[in-house]
Design goal:
By secondary structure, the chain is of the alpha+beta class. It has a domain of 68 residues. The protein is 48% helix and 9% strand. The protein has a four-stranded antiparallel beta sheet with strand order 2-1-3-4.
Length: 200
């Protein structure tokens, strides 16, 4: 499955200004800046963290200064450190793993040896825990955003507890009176991976 494209959202006060790629959001802010009395915040939708951009100059200059995405795979493959053992063409990177002797004994007895067995175990864990890991990341992103944008709003503590309890209805009830764009974005971040029920 291909990774989702990075997406960002900007807010002017409690109003959603723009969503999309970082370049799209940056240009939307640049165009709207002269007409907005409220400060503008930009959020990474994957993490809920805010970021600062330098919006001086032309659209081309702004886009040229945007930070480049740095996924873990890209960092590992473009490292300038000398390569030791491993298979660089496959993106394999040698790192240290500390295990007890009995763990090494067990790994060494497995077909394919320790490296193959460890890779299989990691892949199995990723498959088994993938949904839970995505849900945890979504809740964390929603909490970071909620803390920045709604930390002083009524019911914030109770809403935070409902978020981490995965109580969607309780969360919706507690934030019902919050500004619409903030409320809707919290729900979007927190429950983006929840399958919609089939109609009919």
């Amino acid at each position: 499955m291909a990774a989702l494209s990075p997406s960002f959202t900007s807010f002017a006060g409690d109003r959603l200004l723009a969503s999309g790629s970082l370049a799209e959001v940056a240009i939307a802010i640049k165009i709207a800046t002269g007409n907005l009395p409220d400060p503008i915040l930009i959020f990474d939708n994957a993490t809920g963290q805010s970021l600062d951009l330098d919006l001086r100059g032309s659209h081309r200059e702004i886009i040229a200064r945007l930070p480049l995405p740095t996924p873990v795979e890209l960092k590992a493959e473009t490292s300038v450190e000398p390569r030791g053992r491993g298979r660089p063409r496959l993106g394999v990177v040698a790192r240290e793993v500390t295990l007890l002797p009995r763990h090494w004994d067990w790994l060494g007895a497995q077909p394919g040896g320790a490296s193959v067995t460890l890779r299989k175990l990691v892949e199995e864990a990723r498959r088994a825990n993938g949904d839970r890991d995505r849900q945890r990341a979504a809740r964390d992103a929603a909490y970071h955003f909620m803390s920045a944008m709604a930390g002083n709003l009524p019911n914030f503590e109770e809403a935070s507890r409902a978020l981490f309890a995965d109580d969607r209805h309780g969360l919706a009830r507690l934030i019902a009176d919050w500004p619409t764009d903030i409320r809707d974005h919290i729900v979007l971040l927190a429950f983006r991976d929840v399958a919609k029920p089939a109609s009919g």
